[in-house]
User: Fold this.
Amino acid sequence: MQLTITMKYLPISAAVMAALFNTANVYAADVDETMVISGSRVSQHINDVPRSMTVISSNEIKEMLTYQKDFSSVLSQLVPGMGTSIHGNLTSKGQNNIRGRRVLLLVDGVSQNNGFLDFGQEMLAIDPENIERVEVIRGGSAVYGIGAQGGIINVITKTPRKGKPSFKTKIGTNFQPNGGDSLGYSLYQSAQGGDDTNQWHIGLGAKHNGGSYGADGKRLPSKATSDDMNDFNLNSMFNHNIDGDRSLTFNLSARQAQDHDGWCSANGLSEDGKHDGTAYRCGAGISDNVMNPITGELPKDVQRSPVKRRFINTKLRYQDMDFALGMLDVSGYYMSQKGRTATLKYRIKDTSSPFHGKDVYGNNFTDFQKYGLKANVTSDFDWAQMTWGVDIEQQQYQQPNTAGLRNITPDVGQFTLATFAQFNSDLTDSTKLSYGARIEGSQLQVSDFTTSEVYGNHFVKGGTPSFVEPLFNVGVVQELSDDHSLFASFAQGMSTNEVLRDIRTGQNGLLKSVDGALRPVKTDNYEMGFRGFIGEASYSVAGFYSQSDLGATLEINQDGTRLESVRAPERVWGVETTLNYRFTDNLSSQNTFSWQDGERQLKDKPWEPLDGTRIAPIKLTSMWQYQTNGFGNYNLSMIYSGKRDRSQDISRGALFPVDEFFLASIGANYDVGVGTLHVGVENLFNELYITPYNQSQMSTYRYHYAPGRRFFVSYEVKY
Assistant:
């Protein structure tokens, strides 16, 4: 369901906590899974949550996959406050924010965010075929700590159901009419079953992504996208009910993506600033500016190394519904992200380096690991329900290279310990109060290192700087009538800054550099809104405002060699509305509207607008579903992205104007007796446009069109 509101109370006091970390048996049997909200970490009726939320059901995901091939497109259509689709962009830039702030991505309750660098490749770890549902909290959250200053996206993967073994097979293809190399295909196989004691589910997927063409018929670059890649994924869960009150659940998911071809970008901007959009085939393992685009030759001794991305998530969870203090929920987890970039070219600009003026070539490797423990207890008192617990986590990050340079990035670690308590109280029969606090402590562990030639080739002493931050939240829901309610909340959120971008320069020594970089982005979020029913329509209207004394925006530095984090006070505000209407039993629509703006105050300057990498333009979406009696089910989705031009007021950063565009996509499902046939068309009217993020940055190698019209066909059978 798109609007996460109802005036009918649901018995989910235990189920919400169960859904939080994706346990199978508790909520699966008792609760409509599309109605479960897990973002608050508190057992609450849906109407009692004083926040704006979006729940994307498995049926909605299934419908959108008839004409979409990536998870980001589903989110852009259904989540207000989030940017439009990035079309498989590997870095997720442009969709790493909700309401202009950094978002926390959870997969089965495990954070995917890298605490050292900005939200990047995390969405690539998710295969939409493996998703049970998605729960989105819009706006900062105090109960999750680091990463959740703008919102939470909680992805719940497929869960087992008891019964005799059942299977699902799905095959699909997608293509554009411009070229044979646009052909992509996929295969997905799942199986599940179990009895009252043990339940299991496993899903296996393989996908070949072809290339993309713009609406003008020109081949698009693929080096910054998931085009021209193959990926394989596994998702599995095993649940064991020890007895009627205790259960043990094990999750394992893994995905690997590797390029099989590659098209590099050249002349993304011509000399007069107009769009050129040239792409040339450079093949797998080569980045932009390495191969000569005219002759197709590689520099001497340059070796091809295919791009690889590997993601692993595993979790073991114990749940005791009859614990002495209430309900006990303990999860231990491990996650890993490892990758290798294409071969890059480095031009040594440091005049003191013996390699000054020379080009060197090599790959960057990334090795990010995270493991931790989450423990919650939910206790009931006469005056409140309390959920309290502790989160413990260790992160490790390495980024060596093969270019012959010393490592730009030292080995770093981060240990985090947090305690929290969250309360729900009924002040009256019609007034619900939620409130809580979290204390987050984090220590950075940086080894001694010597900067590369790029940064002067000098020694930097490591250290263990740390911080402790308290976070608070309070919210109220007031029922105005049986069908309408008012909600208001204050919630603090926090995320770490791009600390590594400052550390690895080594310009001022570690501790002096970290003093500014380590300070987290802490936001105060205010929200007020209404939600309810009017006849066959359900609606929500919310206004929000957030401010931070020290925000962070990534910008390309003045000489264009790297991204750097710019710290400044910030404030963001906006309005979001949703409207669902059921015209008949067969025809319904879901609609959203989002508008936001924001500004920052650079040192010794007046307030100026935040740039287009942070603030998305006006967005309107509309999704229509029509179900026939035996002649197929049809859906139409439309999205309008508006203009935003603040270039006259922005002094630095991604200051270029953003133009409007309109996209429509259609899909249909047909029961063919044995199985279901899905057909769809993305970008139905073949709109020629550039994504807002790429428009605002106007980077030479990213300023190119988004894909034009694409056709989808798939068939699935359950047995």
User: Anything to note?
Assistant: Residues 1-36 have pLDDT under 50 and may be disordered. Residues 17 and 43 are 6 Å apart (CA to CA). The first strand starts at residue 52 and ends at 56.
